[in-house]
Design a protein that fits this description.
Elements lengths: L1 H14 L3 H7 L3 E7 L2 E5 L2 E4 L5 E2 L4 E4 L4 E6 L4 E4 L4 E8 L8 E14 L2 H5 L4 E5 L2 E6 L2 E7 L10 E7 L8 E6 L2 E5 L4 E6 L8 E2 L2 H7 L5 H5 L7 H12 L9 H6 L5
Parallel strand pairs: 9-10
Antiparallel strand pairs: 1-4, 1-6, 2-3, 2-5, 5-8, 6-7, 7-9, 8-9, 9-12, 10-11, 11-14, 12-13, 13-16, 14-15, 16-17
Length: about 260
């Protein structure tokens, strides 16, 4: 009997798809550019990231000091991570015929530059980033996120700052930022919103070039200020198929406007 039970366990192990096997079938994207170092924690296994390394849902990605990594995701979106940054890729789901795509990530610390791809074009509000200071809901845009951890000395208060920029096509999107204490909207180029740890997000205010340069590390300057254009093969394919009527096109998302309140 003991041998039979053991045999059943082995058989179940062989025929049951493991989480890593499932993940291998659904890559979220890959490392397109790398300067310095990046490590990926994949279900407890530490992987040294390289150019063209594939990333999957549930990967935890961390950059080293003076490092930069650019992720190109399946929908053509670009996500740059600056030095000492940490990202948990909670969920990524996308295909050309997907009727419910989603991109969710948790950003614990560091600085990020996100340029929207097809998911936010087809389903506004389906891209969401969690930070220690609130939830960011994105509707097609280029966005800088700077997340500062609190420190006892010299009394640095933890906070998240968002800056909205013009995307490579010259468009300015919208971003909602909310937490338990309040919510606000960001919808003007070069305007920013800040939420101090445990406080409501501020109203949007203009951020000049000098202030942005103080916030952005040198390694990210070309991406932020020189209108960097990522490769967007998936986005272009989606737009072409939409024109041909050969792809699922959702109805307008009425509830999304409710998630991005008007600025007081």
């Amino acid at each position: 009997m003991k041998h039979i039970i053991m045999g059943l366990f082995i058989l179940l192990f062989l025929i049951s798809p493991t989480s890593s096997t499932l993940a291998a079938k659904n890559p979220a994207g890959k490392i397109h550019r790398l300067e310095g170092s990046v490590v990926i924690d994949r279900q407890g296994k530490i992987i040294q990231g390289l150019v063209n390394t594939t990333v999957y849902s549930s990967d935890e990605i961390k950059t080293g000091s003076e490092s930069l990594v650019e992720l190109i995701l399946q929908d053509g979106s670009s996500l740059h991570m600056g030095p000492d940054s940490s990202l948990d890729l909670i969920l990524y789901k996308f295909s050309l015929m997907e009727d419910n795509p989603s991109f969710m990530a948790r950003m614990a610390k560091g600085i990020f530059v996100y340029i929207s791809g097809a998911i936010s074009k087809l389903h506004p509000g389906s891209v969401r980033f969690e930070t220690p200071d609130g939830t960011v809901a994105i509707r097609g845009t280029k966005l800088v996120l700077n997340i500062i951890e609190p420190a006892p000395s010299p009394g640095i208060v933890g906070k998240t700052t968002l800056v909205l920029l013009k995307d490579p096509n010259g468009n300015v999107g919208q971003v909602g930022f909310s937490n338990d204490h309040g919510q606000t909207r960001l919808d003007q180029e070069n305007f920013s919103v800040t939420a101090n740890r445990g406080k409501a997000p501020s109203s949007q205010v203009f951020m000049n070039r000098e202030s942005m340069e103080q916030m952005v590390p040198q390694i990210l300057v070309p991406v932020v200020f020189e209108n960097y254009t990522p490769p967007l093969p998936y986005t272009e394919a989606v737009e072409s198929l939409m024109d041909q009527g050969a792809i699922f096109v959702p109805q307008p998302v009425n509830s999304y406007s409710d998630s991005i309140p008007s600025t007081p």
